[in-house]
Design goal:
single chain, 9 helices
């Protein structure tokens, strides 16, 4: 059965690959699983039908027969469990890859999203200029540790895994801030993720929806 995911009818990022459906598309492309996409407007995300699948009114969702999932970590983990290619066969390596999935979403992404909020959604607040340096410092403190761990390795734990897929997706959000470029090995790590053919296909698919000719 071909699964269906949901995506923004018109992504706020203009198709730069930062919307979370790109992560799910990437995972689907890595495991060579065909999929369909149902586009949802902002109003549609708050409609009862969508809320029945995603109680918080967001994207993406994943539907496969009677199975309905939301949250990118859950969807990517489900795909990694069902298909070869995103989790190692060795038990311990598999557990470490899953740990990195959690680390990407639970440890690294929160300060990264806080920076996005501070730069974009809170920029007009009277206290914004005082808060922004503190937020950046918290991001750098996290990246210091991640950079030291990665060192000169290509991927977080041996071969590419779902942990890398989610970590690269999170770090991509830092590109516009310029902070990612302060860490040469992390910038190269993200570039390796973007160079994967599966990522290129996922990016092209979501970009096509947001291209000017798609209006």
């Amino acid at each position: 059965m071909i699964p269906t995911i949901t995506a923004f009818e018109r992504s706020p990022d203009g198709g730069r690959g930062l919307a979370r459906d790109t992560r799910v598309r990437w995972a689907l492309e890595e495991v060579e699983q065909p999929y369909e996409v149902r586009l949802v407007s902002f109003a549609g995300m708050k409609a009862p039908g969508h809320l029945a699948i995603h109680p918080f009114g967001q994207i993406p969702t994943y539907e496969e027969g009677s199975l309905c999932l939301f949250e990118t970590g859950s969807i990517v983990f489900h795909l990694a469990e069902q298909h070869a290619g995103l989790l190692p066969g060795d038990r311990d390596a598999r557990a470490r890859a899953i740990t990195w999935m959690f680390a990407a979403l639970n440890t690294v992404e929160p300060p990264v999203l806080d920076l996005t909020n501070a730069r974009i959604f809170e920029a007009d607040r009277p206290w914004a200029q005082q808060r922004l340096p503190l937020v950046k410092d918290r991001v750098r403190a996290m990246l210091d540790k991640l950079s030291a761990y990665l060192s000169a390795a290509d991927w977080l734990d041996g071969a590419f895994s779902a942990g890398d897929l989610l970590m690269v997706s999170v770090l991509l959000r830092l590109r516009m801030s310029g902070i990612l470029d302060e860490y040469q090995n992390l910038a190269a790590y993200v570039a390796r993720g973007e160079a994967r053919p599966a990522y290129a296909r996922a990016f092209a698919a979501q970009f096509a929806i947001n291209a000017p000719s798609a209006s």
